[in-house]
Amino acid sequence: MNHDHGMEGMASPPQLTNGTSGMPHHKMMMHMTFFWGKNTLILFSGWPGTRAGMYALALIFIFVLAFLVEWLSHSRFIKPGSNNVSAGLVQTFLHAMRVGLAYLVMLAVMSFNGGVFLAAVAGHTLGFLLFGSRVFNKNTEMLSKTSDLPPMSC
Questions:
Q1: What is the pTM of this model?
Q2: Which of 25, 38, 62, 148 lies 20 to 30 Å from 48, alpha-carbon distance?
Q3: Do the beta carbons of residue 105 and residue 62 sit within 8 Å?
């Protein structure tokens, strides 16, 4: 009795491999809720790994990225009376840098690690306190332009 049911010569579906050893490929579980712990992936495969020191370095990196976003958002690099073309090119470059850094911070927060989230919020907070708030602003009148870039929009 033939139990092939008309499937003679059909090969079984290929097994997924990781391309190097022929071993089956195992997918990592991605967190979809916030979690606490040093064992996470942030931005790059295998980074920061499982060591506490690398996790601390990753948190500092995310803090600095968020701080830089605020610094770029509230800085003046273009001198009044500059050539419109050169000023426009500088402004475009600064905008690209700010958006790129902001997207890196966003992707890091999407790791759903609580420490990464807190580092990003702390970096944005300190950056805004130092560069965007009235605390350290010598000119209390907010009538003058305080940045070369328009406000961030999500």
A1: 0.73
A2: 25
A3: yes
User: For residues 126 and 133, what is the distance between their CA atoms, to the nearest angstrom?
Assistant: 10
Pairwise CA distance, residues 139 & 74, whole Å: 14
User: Is 62 in contact with 115 (CB distance < 8 Å)?
Assistant: no
Cβ-proximal residues to 113 (8 Å cutoff; 6+ apart), any chain = 31, 34, 35, 36, 37, 40, 42
Give the model confidence (pLDDT) of 78-96 as tens digits: 888 889 999 999 999 999 9
* Tokens, residue 151: 């406000």
Tell me how many degrees the CA angle 79-84-89 measures, rounded to the nearest 5: 85
- Transcribe 9-68 into DSSP letters: TPPPPPPPB-SSS-PBP-PPPPPSS-B-SS-EE-SSTT-EES-HHHHHHHHHHHHHHHHH
- Helix (H) or strand (E) segment spanning residue 94: helix 84-109
Task: Give me the sign of the Cα torsion angle 126, 131, 112, 39.
Answer: negative
| Residue 71 near residue 62, CB atoms below 8 Å | no
